[in-house]
Amino acid sequence: MVKTTGVIFDVFSTLIKINDRRNPYLQLLRYGRKQGLCLSGEHLRMLMTQELGWQEAADLLRIRAGDVVLRGFAGELQKELASMTLFDDAQEAISMLREAGVKIGLCSNSASGYGPTVRELLPNLDAYGFSYELGVLKPDPLIYRTVCQELEVVPGRQLGGERVVMVGDSVKCDRDGARAAGLAGFYLNRTGRGDFSSLTHFAECVLIGYRHGFMRGAIKVPADFEEMGRDHIRRNFEGEP
């Protein structure tokens, strides 16, 4: 019998919604482009894999920006943070899993400005895996495995009767990337075009597997889910940066 011992959630558009999106870090990149700098997704990756203040971020990208401009970006970030709320089903799903004894972690591609507010909205979880703290982005296998280490669970360990499950709104990062790292990854799409359309349904299915064996529940994982995840990543599905 395969038993789910840990669940890892993506954060944005999965547990947390940003109601007033300002994209301040993208604004910083656009500001640099206006100065003639060739800034790309690789530079966004740099911002999301290091803990940086606004001046440090500008210096790293060689963007010339004075205090007034940087305070403007910081203000845009604060407006985003103030607008962040949990999805209606987020807390219920987490509570259902915690009451059953399932360990819960987060895994998020995010810049350092978002971390403290996420921790405030989602306190006392078993593991927090932010890309800016770990120095790596999804779908790199290292980020999933690091979160699993914090949870003290072993991904892909089926003979011992354990399985780690992940869910999120990115096919590339939360389903296929997780599967390639040995987790059972699932795609959340609230319009009904994914594996799950709500977190409560996801939690219910996890708990069915927790009590009765993973494959007897409503969650169906292909026997070769790890190779399927690697194959989809090789095809370069779109997802989080």
From TrEMBL:
Gene3D superfamilies: HAD superfamily/HAD-like (3.40.50.1000)
Lineage top rank: taxon: Bacteria
Single GO molecular function: hydrolase activity
Entries under InterPro entries matching the protein: HAD-like_sf, HAD-SF_hydro_IA, HAD_sf, S-2-haloacid_dehalogenase
Key words of the record: Hydrolase
PANTHER family, sorted: HYDROLASE, HALOACID DELAHOGENASE-RELATED
Name of the protein described by the UniProt record: HAD superfamily hydrolase (TIGR01549 family)
Organism: Phytopseudomonas flavescens
